Amino acid sequence: MSTVGTVALYVVFALAVYATGAAVLAGRRRDRRLMQSVSNALVAAFVAVVVAVAALEYAIVSHDFSIAVVADHTSRQLPLPYLITSLWASQPGSLLLWLTVLLGSSALVMYQNRHRNRELLPWVAAVMGGTAVFFSAMAAFVSPPFAKLPAAQIPANGFGLDPSLQNPYMAAHPPSLYLGYVTLTVPFAFGMAALITGRTDARWLLSVRRWTLISWTALGVGMLLGAHWAYVEIGWGGYWAWDPVESAALMPWLAATAFLHSVMVQEKKGMLKVWNMVLVSTAFALAIFGDFLTRSGVVNSVHSFVQSAIGPWLLGFLAAVIAFSVAMILWRLPLLRADHKLESVVSREATFLFNNLLLLALCFAICWGVVFPILSEAVRGIRSSVSTPYYNFFLVMFGIPLLLLTGIGPLIAWRRASTRSLARTFRWPITSAAAGTVLLWLAGLGSSWAGMTALSLCIFVTTTVLLEFARGTSARMALTGAPPPRALFDLIGRNRRRYGGYIVHLAVVLLVIGIVASGSYASVGERHLARGQSMVVDGYRLTNTGLFQTREQNSVTSHVRLAVSHDGKSMGTLDPGLRLFTDTQQVSNEVDIHTSLLTLTDLYTILQGIDTNGSGGVSVKVLVNPMIGMIWLAGGVFLLGALIALWPDPREVRMLARRYAGALAREA
């Protein structure tokens, strides 16, 4: 398997080099036959990398400990599902996954555009092929997944998988993030191809909008999966710690969010062309930067790999990407002039522009927080830490205006909005937000001004979105005579992009409510409990009723059984534990959580220690996290809205075809 996989990676590298060079020639000569050869080469490279993945998976499942990554990240006791997912637990294996997604995306782009974008496609293939050359070189020569151990060092059993990675989320969280990171290559490639060819109108955006939505959705879902993974697995009671690698995923998501909004302005008004090129380049560069943070070892993170030779190469590739994109934008700057000027700051165009500025400002603040400790250590020799309050400050300062714009943007008019129309449009949202603020204050939630402001704006945004759905549904009912459910279904189906976006806005509201409520109004208690003793946290009484053990294939878990009651009413038991992995001799927390389906509030229990004298005494930490379930509910609503926006819309296709019919005819 080692030989098969290694040869397959050499083949991938050779095919990527050929595809890149041939694509450049095909673009210069306008040679369609050569371009077909490029497409075939990228498809063949994808097949070859799949062979490499299959070879490594076979080596893992068959316990071939002569391969270093198999020995370092698996053991004979590891259950089969975690044997399979351990492929991306190692740096070389995860690099192989990255390359697989990249070449799969490249092959799919070639297939999708086989009858269109003939002028752009060679340069798209050149950019994607060049990216594949870099990553295949890393996989084949710098960080090879099939590196062999010397015969004298081959262990009889592997060293096992990190306990935190032995979780079902391992099957979804990393692949989702990698899908998001890697597919940002597609909009970047089309953007650079548009600059190279000078075809900088909105047509290139038509080919990348859904690819950007896929990247954006995958990153968003991946971050929420990772947050829930941290919440249930690491055992500290939280879900987001502003870890550098967590921030690395958030930054390209913010840039992609700005791009998805900015695209609409260019499509409708021919404006923000420079912005779109900058945003698409920034999103891709931040994806590479995130990969650098994860693989270089320059940051301390539970998510990062150990330091390796790949870090400097990634930094060099990032510098090349930035230099190339800046040079191309500056070269074509005269072609990126807006077709129209901004007529008023009180318009939808201005709202999207302010949205872009705030998203990039937040992105820069996060980036500085990640980079500052690295620069501090390089310059002064001392690593200065950037703590959570730094990030939370900028999240509040930029996040609250962004939340306000989320409610304003969909309702404000294009070009220019009059005072009368503004008063009519926002009368009910403002009234609802004001009334909600009073009710929140009376409910005793005024201890946090930021929390109160955010919750009030959530009411404002929710009202604007619901009014849009109500107005649209009413209009459909008047036009077709359909009952409300059918009219609502038809309304969404006739403008999936718009109403899918509104549903995503509702997901943002749910997310903010969950973050604010669980972050500002949580209760915490810690206590040593002898057998039979109780503790009370926010009205919940928990009683230590004794210890017991459970055994699995590669672990033994010691639990404490806590009898739980609230206001004198029994709620059953919770069994937090400490899990010892027999292959690695590592211990992890096994939390137990009770969720109220009515309030989405969690009673979160952690076993911190067990008395060694056999008395049955334990140390327990208990958290009451109000409405934290809103965060996980937001993930489902976010995915629903994104899928609606992604779903092909024949009406939109026909409209865009008419808009660009003349240009497409000239191209043909």
Polypeptide structure, described:
It contains 22 helices and ten strands. A hairpin with a 5-residue loop joins strand 6 (577-581) and strand 7. The model is unreliable at 663-668 (pLDDT under 50). Among the domains are: 1-164, no CATH class; 167-339 and 351-366, no CATH class; 523-625. The protein is an alpha+beta fold and 668 residues long.
Shape: globular
Largest sheet, strands/sense/barrel: 6 strands, antiparallel
Contiguous low-pLDDT stretches (5 residues minimum) are 663-668
Sheet/helix structural class: alpha+beta
Please estimate the helix content: 55-70%
- Quaternary class: single chain
Quick check: average pLDDT?
91
Radius of gyration: 27 Å
**Beta-strand content:** 5-15%
How many strand segments? 10
Distance between the termini: 47 Å
Number of helices: 22
List keywords for this structure.
63% helix, disordered C terminus, 22 helices, alpha+beta, 10 strands, four-stranded antiparallel β-sheet, 668 residues, six-stranded antiparallel β-sheet
List the helices and strands and how they pair.
Elements: H1 2-29, H2 32-61, H3 68-73, H4 80-85, H5 91-112, H6 121-142, H7 173-183, H8 185-197, H9 203-234, H10 244-269, H11 273-296, H12 310-331, H13 348-380, H14 388-408, H15 419-425, H16 427-442, H17 449-480, H18 484-494, H19 496-520, E1 523-529, E2 534-537, E3 540-552, E4 555-566, E5 569-574, E6 577-581, E7 587-590, E8 592-595, E9 602-610, E10 618-625, H20 629-646, H21 650-659, H22 661-667
Antiparallel strand pairs: 1-10, 2-3, 3-4, 4-5, 4-6, 6-7, 8-9, 9-10
